[in-house]
Amino acid sequence: MNTLGPDRILFGSGYPYRRFRDVLGDVKCVDGSDEVDNIDKEMIMMNNAIELFKYHGFRINENLST
């Protein structure tokens, strides 16, 4: 994250093949995750993917974007 910046990182998971609850548990146990501020976490967990989908022409429900 220090090299690329939070705006160039996407979180990937096995969802929907894994339970969402398990995916969130994996994220919470990552070393150093407490030191990442909430804005950067939102970018990595959701907002960067939304922007990527929009770039490729996907229509995104406005309730998802921030």
User: CA-to-CA gap between the ends?
Assistant: 21 Å
Fraction of residues in H or I helices: 40-55%
Order of helices and strands: HH
Structural class: mainly alpha
Number of helices: 2
Radius of gyration: 13 Å
Could you give the count of β-strands? Answer: 0
Broad shape: globular
| Unreliable residue stretches | none
Strand content: under 5%
Query: What characterizes the major β-sheet?
Result: none
> What does the average pLDDT come to?
79
Topology at a glance:
Layout: H1 20-28, H2 38-55
Describe the fold and architecture:
With 66 residues, the chain is mainly alpha-helical. 41% of the residues lie in helices and 0% in strands. It contains 2 helices and no strands. The chain is globular and about 35 Å long. The two termini are 21 Å apart. The mean pLDDT is 79.
Short description:
With 66 residues, the chain is mainly α. The protein has two helices and no strands.
Any key phrases for this structure?
globular, mainly alpha
